Amino acid sequence: ILALIVSCAEKSSYYRNIVLTKCADRPSLCAFFKAIQQDDCADEKEIEILKGKSEPLILELGLLIEVLACKYDMGEVIYRLGLSISKLRKEVEAEAQNDRLYRPLLLLVENAVLVVKIKQESPAALQHALDNFVEENGRLNSDTALRCYHNGECLSRQMNYEDSLRYHYEALDIRLKLYGHNLDIADNYYQIGYIQYFKNDYESALKSFKKALVIRQNLHGKIHPVRDVFRNCHEMIGTTEYYLKEYDSAVHWHQLSLDISVALYEKEHPVVADSYFSIAKCQCEMQDYDSALESCQHALDIRLKLFEQECVFTSNSYDQMEFIRTNLKKVCESSLELQSKNSLSYFKKKKIILRNFSQINPNFLGE
């Protein structure tokens, strides 16, 4: 993972050598890793080794890379991976009855490749394809809703938020008429909230995120073994309330997200650092710089351990730390200045009182 995301060529090469060494006795993983590098890093013979589908870790690695590709906008990486693996489609389909291990990874990558391909599709082309599908299959069916949903996601990636929102509302309307409240409805509300958030319509976004959370809680219960189904909602509610300047409430939601993340992934994980970073931002706005400094330090420690120095997230934590310390210094200086002024004012007042009293009682100062 570090070999894929580290920008420094020297460090990337260092991590790549570690991967190749560790994978020396795992030909599937070795070829898999090389296949997602630049085209000249893997030859046809090595890619053929991918046909050995008995390596369980290959699916786990694929899932991790797909998540990273989404988080760090590494569409080209997943696209190269898909081109290599998609060649095995017919063989996998033929052998799926005997060995299903490879099929989930294949479908996952092909879906990612499809997303990369349609990312540049025009709104007109997407609408034309949808119209043809509706004409053949009708509007009120789950596949039509799914196509509307994917169109919305595609246009959202193109930052065409108006058309994206229109498709998500269309998918929501179909699904509500077909099913009532279910997880798909929750996902629709979440995506609608996400688009409203990027349109700076924070009030509407907050309502949408909370609707998504309520539906998920009603379906899963408030205590769920895989509580990650709630974490994203908590995080986005907290972030939205931050921009609405509801800082106390924002801290509450980010803390819920943090608690879930620690329970799921333990403390040394990127999303845990993200939560600490968000909490520190809120505490800065509340001018609680001591708490902000502590939260920021937690985020920085985790990011240094995971990403070392050369990472934009680590850099962001350093910038935040400097901002907090600068403001904390100003607060301390202001407090000392105020104390000094108050002390000076006290002595001046005392001097005036003593002078006035001495005029009444000349023997007072002598005493």
Automatic annotation (TrEMBL):
Matching PROSITE patterns: TPR (PS50005)
Pfam families for this protein: TPR_12
Top-level taxon in the UniProt lineage: Eukaryota
Keyword ATP-binding: no
InterPro entries, per the entry: TPR-like_helical_dom_sf (IPR011990), TPR_rpt (IPR019734)
Membrane-spanning parts: none
Protein name: Nephrocystin-3-like, partial
Species this protein is from: Paramuricea clavata (Red gorgonian)
Lineage per the UniProt record: Eukaryota, Metazoa, Cnidaria, Anthozoa, Octocorallia
